[in-house]
Amino acid sequence: MIKYILTFIACLSIFIFGQDEGNKQKEPDVELPKFVIYGTQKMNIGNVEKLEAEDVSNLSENIIKPFVLLDESKMSGLSGSENLPVRVHDSVKIIKNNLDLQAGFYTIPFANYNLQIPFKSGFFQGNFFGKNTRPFVDYSDNYKVGGELKFSLFSDDVSSFLPSTNYNFIAGFQSDDYKFYGGSEPALKRSLNNVYTQIDIKNLSKQVFYFGVNAVDEINNIKTENYLDNLLQIKPFLRMQLTDFSLGINVDYKNQNITNNTVSKQNTQYLVLSPIATLSFFDNMKVNFGVNYSMNNYKNNFAIYSALALKVDKNLSLFADFNPNTEFITAGSLLKQNKYLNLSGFTNMVLKKSSSFAAIIKYEYENIFQASGGFRYTAFDNLPYYKIDSTGSNFNIRVANAKQAQFELNGILYPGAYGSLYASLIFSDTHNDVNLKVPYFEKLSVKAGYEYSFGKYTFGGELNIKNSIYTDSLNLNMLNSFYKVDVYTKYHFSNNINLVVRVDNLFDSKNYLWQNYKALPLDLSAGISIRW
Q1: Whether residue 324 has a cis bond before it, omega within 30° of 0
Q2: Tell me, what's the pLDDT at 204?
Q3: CA–CA separation, 428 vs 408, rounded Å?
Q4: What pTM, to 2 d.p., does this model score?
């Protein structure tokens, strides 16, 4: 059945790709937020090449993505920003190189190299890094190396073939060597290798038909544990846009092949079909409705979907959605969040959100300030959480029937005379059906950063707080509150050379990443950033 559906979508794509360039319609000027509660925009304050920070990585941040009103392809049905002109690089620009070298008490050395070669209709980018962390407790040393190549092409809005289309081709790898320093066998070593390739094609010109496809093939491998996880994901979308009405479909197809110590070879397929219709009213309101239909090797699921976007005035916008759905979670995806996962006991699962609704308000003042706030409530039939095993080294996956209520406030002060500022506060209540807190879902999370420059100097700081993180389902044990302050300063020695000094975990807080696994203590580092 899945093969027939994908074949039909492919044929429909070929028909649409060959459409006529005429019949262009005006898109109503309603824009979904780029930074609405864990939205798609990420703000990087300044150009300090920060070392990778140790943090509490848990399911609430990485699997359950609070306050993402719509996924990217569904956003296209409500967003006006997609019709911005395609940017074409000037071929006269010189090759840009960026080399960062740093060393500290524990992080020694760290190196990062970026390369960008722009040309008339696109650019080529490369990034390579290596980081070595000395042991701050016995066997806590860690070594990472990786890189990524990206080739991007753009066709402008007067191109004879697929105008205003963006093509991205990406390939990357990462190798992570670490030990299980918190358990009964702290010297036990794991070498995790990750390789991925990605193709992304998106056409968002002002035509009747919009289309795009994103395809990613990712491989995770640990030879010593006989672990090989290959996940193929294909996400096409198609949309027909008329003056006040649009009709489209989003598709998410996943195919996992996995081998581990308990499974010789297992293949699982997962498919989501989301037909969507959008109605526009008065150029300042859009209503989006449709269905989320998913199927996998085991069972099918059907749910109604709807969303509202209302632009009150040029500064104030309101958003709401009702979005029950399912999500395919693999061992590889959880391994990215908890690298001490027991890979013999888990292959994949389908997370079911039987109910999920959100309401969000966003205020923007030109390009100076932005604030947003809102809430989301979600009911899970099988919310995954981590439980440490008897050795104190590995974590197994358990599931719970759970409810989650989240409230969030965000603010951004864009770079200007008063510097740059971002802040996010999340209050979350995640409990099971007997009103106990689900392990590794924090109650409060605060993130903030500020940077200010004058003359040849730049000063900045970052704050990260998480508390009330239980480590067991009976709520008998809790991690210390995670409190981390980082500060840095940068001296602009010349146009192409910056000297950087950074202090991570300024107050030497006794933080833990997971039960038994301490986080990095105070670390002073210094380095140089060279551009040419």
Answers
A1: no
A2: 77
A3: 9
A4: 0.83
